[in-house]
């Protein structure tokens, strides 16, 4: 299984553009998968540099309804008119974030794309293939990240806290190994992995994605919470690769606890598992 980071907040060199967003390419022996499309068309520019043909992608999974994960959707549709796009039914609702100066910024997807024929709406547990599935409706054993603060959804004309029911996670299995991919882990990375365990009866071998330990709206998680998460992840025995909304200072703290069990994927990174 080959994984290439097409868009992320940082890059491995000046050859690759970076942005506040996430786009991952996953290639198995059967499928070419895109997980999120970043905030713009940048994922496409970097894909060309990494020898990824977006027109060949078999399907796209959008992790949740925020622009930094689905902002490149229109560009994707211009490049690929055959791939199914799997997205949660509530991902096209109206989402906002509180920015400095108490300004609300629209952070949702382009609403006019909702009716596109390539889009397929998922359910709480949705099977794409025998070894590929999506799950949402994550059980909340631990509190959601405090860095969710300042993220809202519009309901009946009122701004209310987003509960992130629209967030979904991807499971890919191949050659006896299981990969769990998260977008932002707004539901809490511990909750997401515990829900995975409840579904599968075991822990994932690999976890890739943002852990939402930092936010432009809510700041970083407390050192105590980060330490607790780091020890939990270490106990799962999974190899973790994080990125995007984890934040560099929280990542450094995780690295101190987890050592070689955690790595960081910047734009332009490529790994094989």
Structure description:
With 273 residues, the protein is α/β, with parallel strands linked by helices. The chain has one domain: Metallo-beta-lactamase, Chain A (4-Layer Sandwich), CATH 3.60.15. Helices cover 21% and strands 29% of the residues. The protein contains six helices and 18 strands. Strands 8-5-4-3-2-1-18 form a seven-stranded mixed sheet. Helix 5 (223-236) crosses helix 6. The chain is globular, with a radius of gyration of 17 Å. The N and C termini lie close together (5 Å).
Which terms would index this structure?
globular; 6 helices; alpha/beta; Metallo-beta-lactamase, Chain A; seven-stranded mixed beta sheet; 29% strand; 273 residues
- Please give the alpha-carbon distance between the first and last residues: 5 Å
Please tell me the overall pLDDT: 96
What is the CATH topology classification name? Metallo-beta-lactamase, Chain A
Rg on CA atoms, Å: 17 Å
Outline type? globular
Decide which structural class fits the backbone: alpha/beta
CATH architecture: 4-Layer Sandwich
What's the story with the biggest beta sheet? 7 strands, mixed
Number of strands: 18
In CATH, the homologous superfamily goes by the name: Ribonuclease Z/Hydroxyacylglutathione hydrolase-like
């Amino acid at each position: 299984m080959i994984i290439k980071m097409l868009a992320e907040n940082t890059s491995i060199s000046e050859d690759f553009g970076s942005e506040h967003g996430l786009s991952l390419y996953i290639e198995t022996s059967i499928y070419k998968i895109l997980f999120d499309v970043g905030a713009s068309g940048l994922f496409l520019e970097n894909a060309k540099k990494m020898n990824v043909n977006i027109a060949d992608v078999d399907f796209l999974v959008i992790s949740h309804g925020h622009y930094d994960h689905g902002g490149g959707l229109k560009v994707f549709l211009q490049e690929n008119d055959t791939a199914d796009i799997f997205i949660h039914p509530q991902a096209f609702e109206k989402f906002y974030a509180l920015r400095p100066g108490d300004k609300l910024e629209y952070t949702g997807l382009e609403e006019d794309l909702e009716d596109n024929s390539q889009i397929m709406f998922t359910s709480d547990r949705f099977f794409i293939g025998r070894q590929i599935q999506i799950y949402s409706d994550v059980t909340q054993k631990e509190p959601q990240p405090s860095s969710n603060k300042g993220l809202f959804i519009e309901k009946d004309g009122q701004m209310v806290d987003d509960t992130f029911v629209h967030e979904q996670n991807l499971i890919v299995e191949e050659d006896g190994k299981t990969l769990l991919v998260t977008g932002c882990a707004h539901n809490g990375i511990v909750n997401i992995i515990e829900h995975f365990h409840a579904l599968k009866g075991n822990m994932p071998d690999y976890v890739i994605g943002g852990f939402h330990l930092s936010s432009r709206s809510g700041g970083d998680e407390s050192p105590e919470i980060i330490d607790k998460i780091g020890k939990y992840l270490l106990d799962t025995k999974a190899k973790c690769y994080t990125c995007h909304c984890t934040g560099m200072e929280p990542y450094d703290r995780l690295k101190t606890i987890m050592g070689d069990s955690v790595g960081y994927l910047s734009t332009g990174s490529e790994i094989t598992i």
